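Q: I'm building a small set of examples for a reading group on sequence design. Run inverse folding on the following structure and report the sequence directly after it, with nothing in between.
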């Protein structure tokens, strides 16, 4: 029988006690007179940093004298640069008796807040420290489906109760196997297991994708996060083969809209003549970040006639990539610079011969332009899980799969390369 909370009326309880022989004491008479207001010994001010505010103007707006504010800032400077103050971030001021300043708190980011405490009763003596927020780590499993109402990964993720950040992360994990721009089909479905950090039962941030299963056009694709000794965590399929490809599926961190494909004969939208289009066009708003699809060396970042502002990168195995019509370049784009996969190299624009904001993305292999949508499939994957680590990998894989779909030990102990279908 389940426990229940019973609430007994006080009057009934009192009568019951009288009936049992206990004498009911008379209630004291109410004293006449007005209520006395007790002034609280603390006062708390909570607000958000206003636009264009500095720390000096913020403190002055709360009537802190310039000499005290100077001591405040100097005590804070070793742990927090005042120039990092951001508009819209919440802060709190706590005052004690007689209006004496006690404590200042400022939300730095989702991981930390700044705390400055006045430790003296007379002349202010400040101590500043960055404090980690207390968070609860949760592992969340969810399911989504690509259908007519939710015909993109983002839409299906949100409909399933997930988050766009999780959608981006999952797309990055599986981008070597699925082109989420062109290969999604109605009826595709997925399961994803990811980390979520919760503080104050309200603020939520997202961690790593731990596992993903995606059925794409009847083909099942898996990804599992696993860390090899003395190496960064990576993602592998169910058999321990690396999911990392030399190139990302696209030069964006989200699902871009494909507006024009690779073709040797295409009507040019500006010139009105048939010309070869040796890349693919992605429609995106001006200013959208463009990322490098692979590690490489910067060959050039400069205006290039009809191509507008263009970045050109050189990669291994005879590959080069081109990013055309950018509105501007990212900082540090100097010839010869080492560029990492996923690094922002520029921003979408419509410079050169363009009718609107978009990115023309091209791949050249051994001097010949190739179709970016097809070429990535020909690129070899990274190294698989070493045989010595396979037992540990299978344990991680099977545990994640049980959380993901409830299919414990589905793959058994199949060695790398075995047919698990």
């Amino acid at each position: 029988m389940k426990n229940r909370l019973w609430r007994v009326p006080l009057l009934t309880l009192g009568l019951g006690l009288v009936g049992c022989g206990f004498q009911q004491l008379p209630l004291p008479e109410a004293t006449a007179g007005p209520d006395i207001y007790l002034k609280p010994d603390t006062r708390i001010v909570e607000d958000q940093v206003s636009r264009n505010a500095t720390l000096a103007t913020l403190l002055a707006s709360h009537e802190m004298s310039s000499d005290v504010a100077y001591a405040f800032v100097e005590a804070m400077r070793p742990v927090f640069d005042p120039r990092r103050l951001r508009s819209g971030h919440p802060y709190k001021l706590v005052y004690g008796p007689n209006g004496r300043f006690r404590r200042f708190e400022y939300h730095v980011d989702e991981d930390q807040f700044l705390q400055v405490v006045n430790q003296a009763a007379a002349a202010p003596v400040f101590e500043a420290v960055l404090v980690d927020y207390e968070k609860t780590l949760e592992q969340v499993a969810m399911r989504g489906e690509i259908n007519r109402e939710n015909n993109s990964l983002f839409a299906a993720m949100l409909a399933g109760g997930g988050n766009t950040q999780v959608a981006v992360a999952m797309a990055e994990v599986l981008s070597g196997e699925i082109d989420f721009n062109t290969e999604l089909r109605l009826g595709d479905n997925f399961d994803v297991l990811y980390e979520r950090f919760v503080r104050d039962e309200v603020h939520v941030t997202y961690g790593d994708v731990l596992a993903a299963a995606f059925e794409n056009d009847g083909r099942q694709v898996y990804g599992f996060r696993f860390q090899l000794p003395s190496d960064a965590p990576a993602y592998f399929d169910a058999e321990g083969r690396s999911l990392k490809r030399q190139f990302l599926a696209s030069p964006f961190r989200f699902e871009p809209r494909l507006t024009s494909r690779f073709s040797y004969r295409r009507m040019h939208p500006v010139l009105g003549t048939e010309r070869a289009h040796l890349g693919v066009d992605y429609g995106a708003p001006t200013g959208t970040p463009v990322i490098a699809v692979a590690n490489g060396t910067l060959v050039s970042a400069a205006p290039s006639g009809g191509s507008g502002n263009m970045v050109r990168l050189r990669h291994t195995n005879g590959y080069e990539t081109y990013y055309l019509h950018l509105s501007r370049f990212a900082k540090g784009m100097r010839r010869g610079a080492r560029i990492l996969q996923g690094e922002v190299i520029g921003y979408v624009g419509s410079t050169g011969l363009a009718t609107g904001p978009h990115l023309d993305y091209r791949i050249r292999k051994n001097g010949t332009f190739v179709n970016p949508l097809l070429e990535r499939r020909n690129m070899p994957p990274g190294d698989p899980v070493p045989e010595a680590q396979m037992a540990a990998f299978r344990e991680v894989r099977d545990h994640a799969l049980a959380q993901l779909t409830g299919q414990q030990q589905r793959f058994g102990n199949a060695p790398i390369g075995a047919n698990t279908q």
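The radius of gyration is 31 Å.
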